[in-house]
Amino acid sequence: MNTNISEELIALATVPVAQLDSNLCFINYSPTWLIHFNISDTNIIGKYYFDVFSDTPIEINELLTLCLQGQENTNLKGKKFTLPSGRTQWLKWKMYPCKNDAGEVDSISVILEDFTKKKQRINLATRAEKVANIGGWHADLLDNTVYWTRRAKQIHEVPYEFVPTLNECIDFYKIGEHRSRINKAINTAINTGNPWDEEAILVTAEGKEIWVRVKGEAETHNGKTVKLYGTFQDIDDKKKIELKYRAVAKRLELSTKAAKIGTWEYNILDKTDTWDSNMYSIYEVNELEDQVLYDVWKEKIHPDDFKKVDDEMQLAIKNGKNVTSEFRIQTGHNTIKFLKSVATVVKNQEGVPSQVVGVNWDITEQRLAQQKLEKSRESFKYAFEHSAIGMALVGLDGKWLEINQSVCNSLGYSKAELLKLTFQDITHPNDLEKDIELLEEVIKGNRISYQIDKRYFHKRGGIVHALLTVTAVKNYDGTVSHFISQIVDLTSRVYQENKLRSLVDVTRKQNESLYNFAHIVSHNLRSHSSNLSMLKDFLDKEKDEKEKENLMNMLGSSVNSLSETVAHLNEVVQITTDVKVKMRRISLLEAINTVQKNINVNIAEQNANVILNIDGTHFVHVVPAYLDSILLNLFTNALKYSFPNRTPVLEISSKNVGGRIILAFKDNGLGIDLDTHGPKMFGMYKTFHAHKDAKGIGLFITKNQMMSMGGKIHVESEVNVGTTFTLSFNSN
Amino acid sequence: MTIENVKNCCIIDDDPIFIYGTKRLMKEIEFCENFLIFNNGKEAIEGLVNDNKNEGELPCLILLDLNMPVLNGWDFLEAISKIKDKNITKIPIFIITSSIDPRDLEKVKNYAFVHGYLTKPITSEALDGIKNTLDL
């Protein structure tokens, strides 16, 4: 057999073929050789093999040498070499020694194929199959055989030697919806040639359920499907994550729906927007095709709010900032809804705002409640400010926190002044203790409120009577935060009450004195009348003329006494008539001088020494006739009850005390035992000395006259030393 | 039945006409022959205490007016209630006054040694009543 390969044959070869001489230099080669090995030289004839392949396995050298020695070598499966440069190279070859006519090997033929790239591609695919969990399969419908790749078998958890039938393939899918879906897809592919791509649960040979993605395509021949092929992909992890994500998304959707939170998106770049279903129900509009949602929103928003919110949104987009706003929308018939909106601007990878995502929710109820609260707060504030009752908020330490005008009016302080004080500062000390006691009970929670009558000090120092009601205001945790105090100013009422009480007192006293007077009158008249009737009885029976005369004298004296008594009573009765119109402002000194002149005779008779120490500027507001009577009475008493054998000394002086004129009338006479007589000193028909002229009427009248003029009379006395009467007059 | 005379009667009153009339009536109805007269409470206290000291005869009863100068009837009663001498304090006292003031009547009840309250003018019937009260 001629082993020489003709030059023509080599030139036509489609595989890389070359012929080398005994020095391993190229004699001949196919054009594909240069192309296959990417050799830049155009002609390599005569060139040494290892000069042409600078980076080639050393083993090839050995093989070529062996071949020159007549040893044929073939490797069609291919072998992996590591080149001197470190690269990996997969080579397939056939080497034949070519003998000359002498039967000596003079050249060798080499067919060499580098399939490194192809091998790498296969490796990549295998690795990809493994990494992506993708297994391949194909089914020959003509002979009904099925081929699975290793990975496909791993996915199904079957041994490598397992060879399924087409029906067995289908039976791996979970019975029910999953299996029937796959079955239907395969049948459709067989009948129509349509491809499929399904996700289904597969039950492995070990009984494990996993999610797989099954793709299939049909190969047809003459309109008939002859072959199916495709992939299995284990998508269990991904699918489970997806299902989980879907559940979360569903939950989110449900909760946003329940919370009536609408979400929307606006794509800034292509100016499109999207609403979720909640948005439509909040705005009460139907979802329609070709809706420009911005226009829908613009139509629904309250015209007064549109510009503000729209501007805010534009600014947010421009600056890439988030925005929170509140606005009203009009839905249905004059129905206003209050919405709250939060929008977030999303930027793309280049940092340019690309999208706005926002939520809207209905806060109408909240807003209405708030409005109601504000209204009630306002009306409280109004009531507080304008109440005629003093109202104040007071801190736990007693500091005024807030005060209305009424409190200021009652206490005389300005608001600013009061805010610097505590209620303790201006409370009457006698009322402070009970106030604080009650306040502490409220703080302790023993009572909610209390009410007391108490006194404050007015800024000018006067007493302010008030009815105080204190109510606690509590924190959320039930502790007392502050107090609301209501202060009803009772000062004018208390003043009126006191006035009324003193009026009642006067009336009571007057009644009493009237009662006394009636009895005094009765007593006096009875004593005279009983004497008269007795004397008359004796007279009737008396025979003796001398005794008769005696009785007649007594009768006369008794009648005189009676008329004198009547005169006294007259005098007393006159005092009770209204004196106001008769009141005059007169000089005290002049009045005294006049009276003194009238009784000059008596003074001279007793050789009395009158010392006057009266300020000429002292004027008194009196009924002049009463003052005359009073002064006369005091003068005559002093003379009448002078101490025997002692020169009567009468000191009369006056002074001004707090706008009242005090007149002192001091004598050095008998004096009166005040321990015994004090209480009846100014009583009617009370006499203290066994004096023939003592009638017990003078001081009684003096006292009554003083009282009717709004004056006072007071006595100090020591027996055998003297008596001082002190009289107090109004000066104007 | 013969009524025994009161041996000695004390009258404390500042009204001479009343004293005259009372003495005359008492003599006429033979109530009493001997009289001890004082014109006010002060005189009476002094007189009675002196009489007792001098072993003079103390009165069997006292007729006491209320309205008098210096010491009135009430002052006298107060003074008597402070005296410890039983001889004086045991003397029965009768108030004789022109006052019909119920407050006076009420006030008299505070003094146990006051045996009666009579209003002027004095009558023979009233004097008989005194006798009965004293069980003479």
TrEMBL record, chain A:
PROSITE patterns: HIS_KIN, PAC, PAS. Its EC number is 2.7.13.3. Residues 376-446 form the PAS domain. GO terms for molecular function: protein histidine kinase activity. The keyword Chloroplast does not apply. It holds the Pfam family HATPase_c. Residues 196-247, 323-375, 450-502 form the PAC domain. SMART domains: HATPase_c (SM00387), PAC (SM00086), PAS (SM00091). It catalyses: ATP + protein L-histidine = ADP + protein N-phospho-L-histidine. Residues 520-732 form the Histidine kinase domain. Keywords: Kinase, Phosphoprotein, Transferase. This is histidine kinase. It comes from Saonia flava.
Automatic annotation (TrEMBL), chain B:
The modification 4-aspartylphosphate is found at D65. It holds the Pfam family Response_reg. Residues 8-135 form the Response regulatory domain. One of its GO terms (biological process) is phosphorelay signal transduction system. SUPFAM superfamilies: CheY-like (SSF52172). Keywords: Phosphoprotein. It comes from the Bacteria. The keyword Phosphoprotein applies. InterPro entries: CheY-like_superfamily, Sig_transdc_resp-reg_receiver, TCS_response_regulator. This is CheY-like chemotaxis protein. It comes from Saonia flava.
